[in-house]
Amino acid sequence: xxxxxxxxxxxxxxxxxxxxxxxxxxSDDGQQMMNICAGEDYQAADAxxxxxxxxxxxxxxxxxRKLLQAAQRAWIAFRDAECTHSTAASxxxxxxxxxxxxxxxxxxxxxxKQLAASAHCEEGDAGCASAGEDSDEVQ
Length: 139
Known about the structure:
By secondary structure, the chain is mostly helical. It has a domain at about 1-90. About 70% of the residues lie in helices and about 0% in strands. The chain has four helices and no strands.
């Protein structure tokens, strides 16, 4: 399992390095360019996630921060493992980096919506914890 996770991380890092070397050109439908564009999409989603997380963690008390940190760490582990699992069939292929980036982007965007929804929860609103979750978003 650790090897698969490490492999996925290396693929994403390699795609990120390639993205820095060459910018996304969405008119180029070659696999390398699609990998670069998907990597850029994930990097943008990750930046938005970090901002949403920082905004939310800054508004919590000390206990709330600890709980949010634990939840976020667990969510990141889940996201990475889920993307490793769901893209395993393409491992070793030229499409793999794109599929990993697309999975990471999709799950990251869903998490941003969750964090944004919880930022607007009022204390004591038990139904608010699941606000923003849509079963169609995470597949």
